[in-house]
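User: Sequence recovery, please. Input:
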């Protein structure tokens, strides 16, 4: 229990470890390759949930909404681990990195569980567009039948 208390008490402390630049034999190219790659991955991982949120706001009555929120949280947390890896070249926040990884693992498992649980329902559900198309086709068939009937009445009067 003391280790857990110590962990959270020093969550943002970086005094116990050196920055990554001074750990090992990093060349400038190799270090910046890691930093820029991790920042680019982090950026993509933050843009994707923004797009998902935009999509959710534009589409009302979206089925399985919790799945979208879990995916968003999963993607943001994955991106956060890449950001902290880039930052650790200057600020060795290994405790914070460990906590982010634990949260990422928990949300990843929750997302996988919900997908496994909801997959049969997702497979059975009809996409809203297909349902609308089906309804429009039925309406069109009804109108076509009415047109044929009207034409027959007109022909019988002549």
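Assistant: Recovered sequence (158 residues):
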């Amino acid at each position: 229990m003391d280790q857990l208390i110590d962990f959270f008490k020093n969550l943002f402390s970086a005094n116990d470890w050196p920055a990554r630049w001074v750990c090992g034999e990093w060349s400038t190219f190799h270090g910046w390759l890691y930093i820029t790659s991790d920042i680019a991955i982090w950026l993509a991982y933050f843009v994707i949930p923004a797009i998902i949120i935009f999509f959710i706001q534009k589409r009302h009555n979206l089925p399985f909404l919790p799945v979208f929120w879990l995916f968003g949280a999963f993607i943001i947390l994955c991106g956060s681990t890449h950001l902290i890896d880039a930052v650790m070249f200057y600020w060795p926040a290994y405790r914070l990195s460990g906590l982010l990884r634990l949260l990422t693992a928990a949300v990843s498992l929750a997302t996988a569980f919900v997908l496994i649980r909801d997959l049969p329902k997702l497979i059975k559900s009809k996409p809203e567009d297909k349902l609308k198309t089906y309804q429009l086709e039925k309406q069109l068939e009804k109108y076509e039948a009415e047109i044929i009937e009207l034409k027959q009445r007109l022909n019988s009067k002549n």
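The chain has five helices and no strands.
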